Amino acid sequence: MPELPEVETVRRQLEEAVTGRTISQVRVNTPKITRNDSDFARSLIGLSFVRISRIGKLLIFETSDREVYLLAHLKMTGKFLLNKTPGEYDKHTHVVFSFGDDRELLFNDVRKFGYVVRASESEVNQAKSRFGIEPLTSEFTLENFEKIFIGRKTNIKALLLNQSLVAGLGNIYVDEVLFHAGVLPIRKSDSVSKEEKKRIFESIEEVLGTAIEMGGTTFIDFAHTDGKSGSYVDELRVFSRAGQPCLVCGSVVEKTRVAGRGTHFCPKCQS
DNA sequence: CTTTCTGTTAGAAA
DNA sequence: ATTTCTAACAGAAA
Description:
With about 270 residues, this protein is of the alpha+beta class. It contains seven helices and ten strands. It has helices at about 5-20, 40-45, 120-130, 140-145, 155-160, 170-180, 195-215; strands at about 25-30, 50-55, 60-65, 70-75, 80-85, 95-100, 105-110, 115-120, 255-260, 260-265. α1 (about 5-20) packs parallel to α7 and α6 crosses α7. It binds a DNA duplex (14 and 14 nucleotides) through loops.
């Protein structure tokens, strides 16, 4: 579930909690999470976190060493948790950062798809360059958004899920955005009118903006760094509501498979 | 018990 | 070149 609003929520909480703190100890319980980096712990001890930034769903930790960064992706079930009882955590805790006080930063991930890896400045720039336009920034303009349609004819859902075109949308928010915009997920991108593109563009800003304000969506696993849930789940209009009445028109919300993903829509509100 | 499904995405296959 | 499909993994649900 971590999509842009969830990752942004975590970013803000991490920035508040760990910037300026010196790493005194690092424990790697599951080497795969760090891409089997045998120097991971040793190279981080003594450094401090300077800034936490984000592009799409990727978290970027700047450290006090200009050449040392951490790149972290939550994938499906990853979480960063601030642990108030050092040494006590479950079997899904793969990396532990200690700061020499009574708080630890944990990376926890049931499915182990996520990662926390060390990167150089050039590797960070390489990673950034693979992302498309970032919503809620000055580069996210209608003009730039319209450009991603050029030369493409896949369905609109796959287009919006493509991180190299727009950064940060995932399965939940694409369904919600398309409902908000009144466009069916299966529509071929080259059939989407200029007016519809404008509605989708504005819906991305609206839906993501509100979701960030509400601390993201906790559907099953997503948690804030304090373990609490996001409340945008109460605002979902179609996602996970198959078989239930559309909150706008009362029609039954349907679920199909589009772009290989479970896809929810209202057959009356979207066309 | 077995099978199916799940929020992501890199990489293979088409 | 773009688009589609699958594997990576664990656990909940059917």
